[in-house]
Amino acid sequence: MAGKFDRETIVACLRAERDSGRAIYDALCGSGITAKMAARGGASIVTTHALAYFRMQGLSSMAGYLPICDANALTLDLGERALINVVRECPLVAGLLCVDPTRDMARFLERIAAAGYDGVMNCPTVALIDGKFRSDLEETGMGFAREVDVLGLASGMGLFTKAFCSSADEACAMAEAGVDNIIIHFGNSSGGTIGSKTVLEHDAALERAAAIIDALSPKFSGLIVTCHGGSIETPADFERLLRSEPRLHGYVGGSSAERFPIETSVEEATRGFRSIRLRRPGRTSIRGQDKQEKPGSEFL
Length: 300
Known about the structure:
By secondary structure, the protein is α/β, with parallel strands linked by helices. It contains eleven helices and ten strands. The chain has one domain (7-187, 207-271): Aldolase class I (TIM Barrel, Alpha-Beta Barrel). The protein has an eight-stranded parallel barrel, surrounded by eight helices.
């Protein structure tokens, strides 16, 4: 099985949305039902990966950065068993741990494409890792350069590609490799029951976005540039950012695509059902005779 949409079609559609003045919306979904409804709702792209899976188990998506599962096997399984058959209206993209040293990633990309995915991205990404651990990963061949190589390989295979980037250098490297969509990552999201308490605030996010777009502009001005995470929790939050940085073309929603709507709607539905009062069953006796209660005459 091959994907439903080829790279050229996806890029052309995203550019058409951008050029018409309509914001691109990419929904990161960790379950079949959220992916299905995001696609029906008009998402430009639906994406899945290990982080989204953990988010839909009621956990922090950051669990996807812990050594508790095979991230690539999980993404392949999610697609084959839950998402590929229900996402029909838009492209479906697989988020991969591109630095996986246990796999021949060229062969694995072929499996991803054969399963029915239309594209790939780097998630989990080492772009969110810093300090000594990051330098150790870079020095041992499991750094961002490996992510660039894998997405460049995927692009050469004709798959649509997009990349999380947190700096101008990362974004330019991905653009040079032929990646179709640069996603400016503002870090883990705030909000809801398990969001981060300390996130990249509005002004800092603007500064990061401007630096990356400025670096891309001389050579890659036509590239699709979106953003993700941080303090953006609602469409209004993204609109506010867009007013200050109109060179952005859209937003990539994770918690805002599925966790926030579910946390709100499921709790509200539960409270609604729990608010219903039951009628008291049985009969009452008046002067030795049984008399059935009239409907609505008494409540617990």
